[in-house]
Amino acid sequence: MARFILSLVELGVSATVHLLFGFYVFSTAVAADISQAAAASGFPFLRRPATPGAAGLLDVAAAGEDDERRGDAPLVLDGSPPPIVLVHGIFGFGKGRLGGLSYFAGAEKKDDRVLVPDLGSLTSIHDRARELFYYLKGGQVDYGPEHSQVYGHTRFGRIYDTGHYPVWDEQNPVHFVGHSAGAQVVRVLHQMLADKAFPGHDTSEDWVLSLTSLSGALNGTTRTYFDGMLAEDGRSMRSICLLQLCRIGVIVYDWLDIPWLKNYYNFGFDHFEMSWRKVGFSGLVDLLLGNTGPFSSGDWILPDLTIQGSLRLNSTLRTFPNTFYFSYATKKTRKLFGITVPSSVLGVHPMLFLRVLQMCMWRYPQSAPLPYKGYRDEDWEDNDGALNTISMTHPRIPVEHPNRFVLDDSDCHPLQPGIWYYKIIEGDHILFIVNRERAGVQFDLLYDGIFQRCRKHAFRKSPPTVPNETSQ
Fold it and tell me: pLDDT-derived band of residue 330, with 50, 70 and 90 as boundaries?
């Protein structure tokens, strides 16, 4: 009984902290949009931060819809140099969502050829990879006939009348930078390109010039089990847990289907058609009972982030010989008398401190089979509050990919393709996103290093032909 009460208290604290952080991010975006709208309309005295009322929210709704329309007429990049594509993680968002707020805290402004796609924030790695392809190349998102039938959603999704990089091919490759789950999204897309998995497109692995993983979920995380995924299979959820609260909230949000609100922020489940307009009240009951929808079929992000889910994904993913790989693994722990503990209190985001401590103490349940041969709890103790440091360095399970530890970026020049260069840096999971001020000078050092590597050190021995050069 005491253990049950302790679990409820822990759930209450976790839910409260996450809701407060979510509200902070949302209200920050709303306040910034209202301030910009007020300034544009000639009322500078309205620039002070305010809690938006009904009228303010309607203005923000209109602004969000305008941003979405601007997204339908995208900045189209052509030719060289290759664009750098920043791919967000779980609960993330791209350009055009949450008003003017930047998931990458403005890092995209460091280069004039950077794209920040908006993908499903809770959709599966597979679905996000498909969306990323059509965001760049153009056309209607095709989730694949077999996948769509198995997981119970429509085959086709959003239409991109014009891709953001329609010339994308072997001669015009791209650099990808993926944060958190975004790194695994890029790896799955890369494999799809190699497998020629997009009808009507003759793709190959050489469409990707480099892949940079920033706190990337390359091998899963033990945090999924704290939040509610069962260690026994890595797919099911406990009856009472943080993820169940998340599931209910997402279902209600999508069922209400408030257009301006979904323009402002979207979890990405439109292809499951959960709106009240489609399923009615009885459909809501089925969704909440777990009879239908993404949480019933397992086609959402969390099963992909368990150690078992990552192992299933990784068993199909390769490291390609002509692509450059670099990984930044974050860590907010240290050893104290032989025990792994948080490295600081003030330096960890309040949303993550409890998680850093929990993940240090994680022990795989004795009743559950180990997720892979050779698993050891102590290997997974170091973490950044969301992911285990061992998971972020390079693909390890079920097979370890070629890798090299780096102390200083200059130590790995000239870069060799087909090798995961990795560096371990001090920081929690969200130090380098959303709020630039938290990281301070580290922010510029990190992103300047990434962008410089893309521009000066990652290139093929045979440089691609400049567009139209052969026709002159």
Answer: very high
pLDDT at 134 over 70: yes
**Candidate from 51-55, 134-138, 353-357, 415-419 with smallest mean pLDDT:** 51-55
* Whole-number average pLDDT of the chain: 87
471 half-sphere exposure, CB direction, 13 A CA radius: 3
Tally: H helices and E strands in the chain: 16, 11
User: How is residue 148 annotated by DSSP?
Assistant: H
Phi and psi angles of residue 210, each rounded to the nearest 5 degrees, phi first: -150, 155
Buried/exposed code over 426-446 (b: 16+ C-beta within 10 A; e: otherwise): ebbbbbbbbebebbeeebeeb
How many other CB atoms sit within 10 Å of the CB of residue 421? 24
**Which residues in 138-163 are b (16+ Cβ under 10 Å) and which e?**
bbebbbbeebbeebebeeebeebeeb
pLDDT digits (tens, 9 = 90+) for 416-448: 999 999 999 999 999 999 999 999 999 999 999
The C-alpha atoms of residue 442 and residue 79 are separated, in whole angstroms, by 32
Residue pair 431/438 in contact (Cβ under 8 Å)? The answer is yes
The answer to whether 305 touches 297, Cβ cutoff 8 Å, is: no
Task: Give the phi and the psi of residue 335 in degrees, each rounded to 5.
Answer: -90, 135
DSSP H or E run through 86: strand 84-87
For the beta carbon of residue 172, count every other beta carbon within 10 angstroms.
Answer: 21
427 and 416 in contact (C-beta within 8 Å)? no
**Rounded to an integer, what distance in angstroms lies between the CA atom of residue 385 and that of residue 358?**
9
Task: Name every residue whose Cβ is closer than 8 Å to that of residue 45 and which is 6 or more positions away in sequence.
Answer: none
- Pairwise CA distance, residues 146 & 4, whole Å: 42
Q: DSSP letter string over 7-29?
A: HHHHHHHHHHHHHHHHHHHHHHH
